[in-house]
Design a protein that fits this description.
Blueprint (H helix, E strand, L loop, with lengths): L1 H9 L9 H14 L8 H9 L12 H18 L8 E3 L8 E3 L7 H4 L5 E9 L16 E7 L2 H25 L3 H10 L5 E5 L14 H9 L9 H8 L4 H15 L5 E5 L5 H4 L4 E4 L5 H7 L4 E5 L5 E5 L9 E2 L10 E11 L4 E8 L2 H11 L2 H11 L8 E10 L2 E2 L3 E7 L1
Parallel strand pairs: 5-6, 5-7, 7-12
Antiparallel strand pairs: 1-2, 3-4, 8-9, 9-10, 11-12, 11-13, 13-14, 13-15
Helix pairs in contact: 1-2, 2-4, 7-14, 8-12, 10-13
Amino acid sequence: MVRVQLERLLKSGHFRNSKRYPTLLRHIVEEALEGRGSLLKERTLGVEVFGRAPDYDTASDPIVRVTVAEIRKRIAQYYHEDAHASELRIELTPGSYVPEFIAGREAVAPEEASPLVGEVVTAEAVPVKAGPAVGLFPAEAEPVVPRRRRLGGWSVAALAVLLLVVAVGGLWAWRVTRPTALERLWAPVFAKSGAVTYVVPMSVPKTDLGRADSTADAVAHVMNYSPKGSGTFLAHEQLGENVVFSDMLATVHLEPIVEAQHRTVRVQTNYGARLDELREGPVIMIGGLDNQWVLQALDKLRYRFGGSDETSFYIRDAKQPENRQWAVPLGARYEAIDKDYAIVARVYSESIGQTVMIVAGVGMSGTAAAGEFLADPAKAAEIERRLGPKVHDHDFELVLRSDVVDGNAGPAQIVAAELM
């Protein structure tokens, strides 16, 4: 019965379009049915379901807690529908990973479903003979009914205190174990096991990028600066070993987030990164117009880069292509630039086969501000408020704006958002 109900639950609209949630729920239910419920711990689930290392840090990698919290929500939504209210219930109570199987309403006897107000029905049952005044059973019948005990005033008070203690303790445990907004923001990126890879661009003059209205053209311009076949060692040093300071500043801002994962970290240039390596673990892409990986990942999204060196580079809105308000005239004098813009996107990459995080500014200061934005717990909470609870397991894209003074960017602010 449990397995039949599980299949019914997983085929519903609350689960069928996801891979992660059905996999974990099925594993938990099957382990419980096989008598291994006592082994359902956070670390065990992280290792067996999500491929984490046996010694991974559950405090900094909340993938199990985040996933189970979402499963609980979807189960509640399923049974909230009247059509499913009478079905056998599969529940995951907060603070436990062991499922409970509860008979639906149609399986509950009326006597058990409606105890008298002010009485407690105990699990102990005693035979009671029907008296003449009852007239419901023959004299020889001995129906088994629940025995009821009326609570005195002291017992009611004691029970109220006990319930209060349990509620406060449960609230404390929930707050301690509940992932933070920042952890929830990054959880889909770190769901992939393995080393974390930063992909940072080599220094390519944006004024040599030509037009960026076509992703293919922009990528071609970037690839023209590939250090391969550059000839001398000096030529390779001058081109191939240089990265933009603001790109590295964005990486430094994000390092505490990555460090909390306790994983191997590697930094690859946009020319040195190979697709097979990027598929081995979480990926964070830094830089915008000078990183072909970023340009390709943004190609199908609503917000991406456009413009030319003759006018200015800007963030394009596919729904409003004439809108060029998020532009930076990169050819203007250094001190004249007072605003910069950036794209932040957490998106599933078909080519890499996982969710990646993109930190990409129009100008250098925009990238640095975007990196700082993604490491700020308050900004993570703002993203949730703006995009709603679906942001936990959906792709999203943000456009950020920051004020710039002498090349230094202030805190970034969200000016546009898209949930996919």
